[in-house]
Amino acid sequence: MGNQLFPVFLKLNQMQTLVIGAGPVGLEKLQAVVRQSEQARIKVVAAEISDEVYAFAKEYPQIILEHKNYEAADLAGADLVIAATNNPALNLRIVEDGHHARLLVNIADKPELCDFYLGSIVKKGDLKIAISTNGKSPTIAKRLKELFQEHLPDGLDITLQQMSKFRQTLDGDFQDKVQKLNEVSAVLVRPAAKSPSFPFFKWLVWLTIMLSLAILLAIFWHREPEFQEYLINIDPIFYWFLLGGFIFAMVDGAIGMSYGVTSTAFSLSMGLPPASASMAVHLSEVLSNGIAGWMHYRMGNINWKLFRLLIIPGVIGAVGGAFLLSSLEHYSAYTKPLVSVYTLILGGVILSKAFKKPGKRKNGKIKQIVPLGFFGGFIDAVGGGGWGSIVLSSLIAGGRNARFSLGTVKITRFFIALMSSLTFITMLKYVHWEAVGGLIIGSALAAPIAAKVSNRISVKSIMVAVGIIVILVSLRSVIMFILKVL
Ligand SMILES: C[C@@]1(CC(=O)O)C2=NC(=C\c3[nH]c(c(CCC(=O)O)c3CC(=O)O)Cc3[nH]c(c(CC(=O)O)c3CCC(=O)O)/C=C3\N/C(=C\2)[C@@H](CCC(=O)O)[C@]3(C)CC(=O)O)/[C@H]1CCC(=O)O
Ligand SMILES: NC(=O)c1ccc[n+]([C@@H]2O[C@H](COP(=O)([O-])OP(=O)(O)OC[C@H]3O[C@@H](n4cnc5c(N)ncnc54)[C@H](O)[C@@H]3O)[C@@H](O)[C@H]2O)c1
Prior knowledge:
alpha/beta, five-stranded parallel beta sheet, 7 strands, binds nicotinamide-adenine-dinucleotide, transmembrane, cell membrane, Sirohaem_synthase_N, precorrin-2 dehydrogenase activity
C-alpha cells in the first residue's frame, strides 16, 4: 500500500509538547523539536536528567525541566507527547494514558507504539520539506535530507519571498490570481534546455528540401542550355570549397569554434586574396550562425546584457577591419602573409587550449567586454575568423557561464558576419563567387549533421587536429612568401 502517513506542519510555538525521558534519545528528540521552532513550548519529565539535557535546556528558557518520575497528571495541558524512556512497560503506560486523554503519542524508535513519526527535515528559509520512509529506514531519510539540503538552490527562498510580494500586488478574483501566479512560476518547471541536437525527422525535411533543389536544378539543366553551359564550365575550385566548407563546418559544429580560422587558412592556400577569402568566409557564416543563433535564442541561452555590450563595438571593429582589408586588396602579397601569421598564432592558441587542464579558471567575470568586442570584430574581419575563438574563449576563461556565453557569441557572430560581408561586397570589385558558393553550400549541408555528431567525438582530439591543420596550412603560406621574397 506504500506510505499512508499524512504529513502535517505543526505550530509548535502555540502548543505544549511533553518529552518524557532525558537520556541520549530524549535529548535527540528534544533537539529535533527545538531545531524546527526555537519558540516551541516544551516540558521535559524524567527520573534522571543527563548533563547534556541540562546544558541544552539552559539556552532555551521556554524548556521546563521536571526532575521526577512520570505520572498521568504530567499529560495535563500537553498537546503532543514524545517518550524516550528505557522502560518498555512505562512506554506502554504512556501510550495508554495518552490515548485516554486523546493525545497523539510518539514512542521514540518504537514504530508500533507511535501515533505519528518524526520526519527528516530539509529547511531553506521559509521552505520546509519533511521526509518519511514509513519507518523503513531513518538512515535513508537522513541521507535524502542531506541530498536536498545541498542541491536545492539557496535562491529558492528568494523566489518564495518574491512570489509572496507579487501575490500581494495582484487584484481581481481568485481565478485570475491563480492564473497569474502560475504564469510567472511556469519557468521553474519548464523542461531544461536540450542540447541543439537535430532530430531524425528534421533531417528528413532537410534532405527533402535538398532533393527538391536538385530536381529543380535538373529540370533547369534540360530547359536552359545557357544554364547547362554555366554549370559545365563551373570552376572546379567550387567543388574544393564545397568540400572544405563541409569539413570545417562539421569541426566547428563539434567544438564551437575554428570555422573562420580553418576556412580562411584554406581559402588563402587556394590562392584567394585575403579580403576575398574573408568575405567568402563571412558570407557563409551569416547563414550558419543565423541558424545557430536562432536555436540558442529559442533555448533561452542568450545573455542580453552581454549581447548589448558586445554587438556595437563588435560591428564597428568588424566593419573597420573589413574596410581596411578591402582597401589593402592591392597589397595582398603583403597582407596575406600577415594574416597567415595571425592564423598561425590562433592555431597555436587552439592547440594550447586542447591541453589546458579544465577547471583552472580565474575567479571573477571578465569586465572589459567593450574592448573585447571591438578587438574580436576587427581581428575577425581582418583575419577571416576569430570572433568565436577570441570572444568566446575570453568570456569563458574570464569566468562567465559557458552556455550563455556560447549562445550570445553565436548570435552576435551572425550580425558581425553580416556587417563585414556587406562591407566587403560594397568595397570589392571582383567577388570569388565559386569560393563563396562552395563554402555556403558546404557549411549549410554540414550544420545539421555536425550538431548530431558533436557529442560523440572527444573535444580534445578535434582541437588537436584543428590546431595542427591550421598551423600547417598557415606555415605553408608564410614559407611560400618568404621563399618568394628571397
Ligand atoms: C527521521 C528521524 C527524525 C528524528 O527522530 O528526529 C527519525 N529517526 C532518525 C534517525 C535515526 N533513528 C535511528 C537511526 C539508526 C539507524 C537506523 O536504524 O536506521 C537513525 C539514523 C541516524 O541517527 O543516523 C534508530 C531508529 N529509529 C527508529 C527505529 C525503530 C525501527 O526502525 O524499527 C530505530 C532503530 C532502533 C534500534 O535499532 O534499536 C524509528 C523511527 N525513527 C524515525 C525518525 C521514525 C521513522 C522516520 C522515517 O519514516 O524515516 C520512527 C519510525 C519513529 C520515530 O522515532 O519517530 C531521524 C533522522 C535524523 C535526521 O534527519 O538527521
Ligand atoms: N541510546 C541509543 O543509541 C539507543 C538507540 C536505539 C534505541 N534506544 C532505546 O531508546 C530508549 C531510550 O534510550 P536512551 O539512551 O535515551 O536511554 P537512557 O537510559 O539514557 O534514558 C532513559 C530516560 O528515561 C528516563 N526514565 C526511565 N524511567 C522513568 C520514569 N519512570 N519516569 C520518568 N523518567 C523515566 C530516565 O530517567 C532517562 O532519562 C531505550 O529503550 C533504549 O534501549 C537507544
